[in-house]
Amino acid sequence: MRADNSRHIVDAARRRSEYTRAKAIQSLRTLDAAGELVTFETVAKQAGVSRSWLYAQPDLRAEIERLRAAHRREPRSPVPARQRTSDASLLRRLEAANARIRRLTEENQQLREQLARALGEQRAATTRTNSPRAGASNPVDGHPVPHRQRQLPRPPVRADRVE
What we know:
Layout: H1 6-34, H2 40-47, H3 51-56, H4 58-73, H5 87-129
């Protein structure tokens, strides 16, 4: 009686299936990474498998359909699907930007208040040190206060000279 060698045939079929599956997955990744259109046709050609085999693989079929739909939404997108920004990532970036804007607004307000205080103190110090006196500035309008010139006596008029 002959030995049952069917396990060798089953093992070879399993290895061939795994190899074919690996080629299809690699083709899918390569097309996506290159930013090319991912369809059943392009994956089948690159992997050297049939389209019907791809349709029969539920996980590969779902991935091809997802990438194809993503490419339709974003035509001309050279960025691979796994590198595209997710909604959650965009939301986190928006929250971070809003927090930064709030922080900068608060800092701006604090700086304005500090400047106002410093200018007020400077004005108060200037007002205290510059009391109205000869040659000083008028604190009201900032113009110099005119100093009074001494009136010098006029020289006596001589009688022999007529002015």
